[in-house]
## 1
Amino acid sequence: MKRNSEATQQLGRLLRGARKQAGLTQEQVAERAGISRPRYRDIEQGNAAARATTLINVARALGMELMLIPQAVVPGVNALLQPSEDEDRPAFTTDMDDDDEHPGPRP
């Protein structure tokens, strides 16, 4: 069944970018994920939806993990993934003020 939703299109673009960054062919990813190359091609092009288990296998074939996170935290995760002006700056620090008894994460 073909589904050309925005979600499948976006997922396909992400998979293609990850595959190219890893220097792999569609055939290599498909073989590692245990699916056919035409099936992987359809997923990567956003022309087909895939089962969760297939997406997990494809992600792992690309050296990634598939994660489900609450929608409410998506903006925070996206902010952490965005490059900052200072690439060496940690996402969180554990500075202690005189008034703090325990260090904690600070944005």
Note: Residues 6-61 form a domain with the 434 Repressor (Amino-terminal Domain) fold (CATH 1.10.260.40).
## 2
Amino acid sequence: MFGMGFTEILLIAVMAIIFIGPDKLPKMMIDIAKMFRNVKNTIGTVKENLEEEINLTDIQREALAYKEELLKATEDVTKVTQIPNDISTGLTSLNSDIMNMDDTPQTKKEPEAVTFSKKQKKKKEKKKTDEENVDV
């Protein structure tokens, strides 16, 4: 016990009887036993508290991880729900841009009449430009 042999324990007991006295020795031994029991209980309580704290720390880490996941999911949902708003805003601005377009004759083109006849004007113009290029 405590790295002591039988002779060392016997020597300590003899010294205790001499200094404390035979009538106070039993009471002193009981007090020492109570002190060791209290120390043991205190150590056990501290050990349990430390284990709870370690467990609480792990739980707290898990809770923070879940919180981060929830924040990311909330951000994604917010982005998805803002898409229709962005589209409607874009369409509204496009509509207002179309309404505010300048109707000058330069930008406004007259639609061509749809016919099924061949366009000969372009061929004649093309022949004229080909003849001019040959003459040069």
Note: Residues 1-80 form one domain.
## 3
Amino acid sequence: MSDFPIIHTERLTLRKPTYDDVAPLLELTQDEEVMLYYGMEPFKEEKQSREEIDWFLKIWKEGTGTRWVITLKGEDDFIGEIGFFEYEKKHRRAEIGYKLSRAYWRKGYMTEALVGMLDYMYENIDLNRVQALVDPRNDGSLRLIEKQGFQRDGLLRSYEYERGAYVDLYMLSHLREDWEARD
């Protein structure tokens, strides 16, 4: 297994998750607004955050995904996380997900992290398709990924059961040809 990939962008470093990230991940996932459309209940205890870090490390070790901790360049403090999972080598596709602390919203950080991750994925993994499931009510997330060329493939009706109700999700995709055609 190769070393965990580190991604550097203009203002950010995307690095390997560690157990030092348990407390800030817990704080992030306890924020109701951050978790509103994420498809998970806000975390209640540190054990859940530790299990999330375990999953981040497991998917990397298994080769089915990679989850990075987002930090400001030159600092090591956790401000969010981004990554891909459910990598299907046969079909050359993977799904992405991300979370960012509210204090860093609307500053272009998630756009920068997403572009860095997509560049890494298309340059280093034999991918044809990157996909995302997004709640139609999550305008910020839809704007974020559509700005990067993701296309809406369709609406998955009553796709998940969250917080006592069924929710629809958009399936969006970004193809290698979209990445190769970027400006």
Note: The chain has a mean pLDDT of 95.
